[in-house]
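Let us work through a complete example step by step.
Step 1: write down the sequence.
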Amino acid sequence: MPQQIALSDGGRPPGHFRNTAYMVNESKPYFDAAHVSGLMAVQARSMAGRTVALGTGRLDSRPLVTDFVRCSYLGLDNHPVIVAGAIEAIEAHRSLHWSCARTRLNFDLLAELEATLSEMFCARVLAFSTVMLANLGAMPLLASGQLTGGRKPVVVFDRIAHTSLAYHKPVVADETRVETIAHNDIDALERLCREHPVVAYVCDGVYSMGGNSPIKELRQLQERYGLFLYIDDAHGISLFGRQGEGFARSQFPQVLGDRTIIAASLAKGFGASGGMLMVGTADYEALFRRYSIPYAFSVAPNLAAVGAALGSCKIHRSAELGERQRQLAERIKIFDRRVVTAEQGNSFPIRMIAIGSEAKAIAIARELLDAGFYTSVTFFPTVGRGKAGIRVCITADHEARDIERLCDCILERIADPAGKLL
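Step 2: predict the structure and record it as tokens.
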């Protein structure tokens, strides 16, 4: 997206931060083709491990495929402890959710969940129904200066920050100046820090299309200029740290402090449902509990989500977490030994197979599905036009032989005789 243009009357041109009609018109042919090919809006039933039964109706008549789409990187979404936690929570309250704002009435189990997560991650944790809602509640408060001593920051977005962050640019721009910089452009960010007294940077910890933010360099800017960091680590939580504190949190001091907020998912590596914010001060916690819109004017995570997350906490505080983290690392190495990608050698479970042509990417993804592997075909607006590809999400629950077979299928379709991806 283009950077904000300063106008003499303080207004902003329409469509400056959002051009929905253009996005829909440009991407509709790709979505139509993916739907026609049976690659999107797929119905299925989860089976053992990473196997799913496609379609509806009798299970014994449905085709079984190995799923490389779900982001349950530790394979916890089928875990019996998590499933039991969801059921036990509903049975304890004889209810699924309370239809009132959280500023009024809250489940006691939700307070237990937030206290447990706070202890595990050495932060003050607030749980939300989704990460999108956590970010929605945080962005206006960040823009208003409430997190930066009453001074409105220049809010800088990484160009490929997840849509659950970038979507809020128009709201942020209504409060303060918004800039967008190239992906992981530390030099550009430092220039803005030198030029402006208060700067906040919004980025992902682990990016959904592969790669990560340079946390070490960002912390150096924070120490040098007082940079405020807002990091969405939805894809990094649970994969790193003794208790699964995640890629971002594991690289900060024990006390998070007043210049960092980390958002994260409870529905990916964590294996349950919902989202959370990690904040470092009691003042920030009180601010969010009173003025975060999804918190103050919407319902809490339902009891099944809360119970499931409490079940996951038990796993995160046991030796099983480390075992699954190590197993995931082994599975990633199996894939990397066979298929060369831009992400090869990093410790994250997302691998992008670059194709280029949207039509070709859709066709190859369909061929992989026919071969028994469901992968994510990606195209504009998720990635740039002409940069379509296939995303593979590797999990600890994948069988080594299934990863090997998937690699065989990929190489058969898009590799040259030497085995290098075209």
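Step 3: interpret the result. Confidence is low (pLDDT under 50) at residues 1-11.
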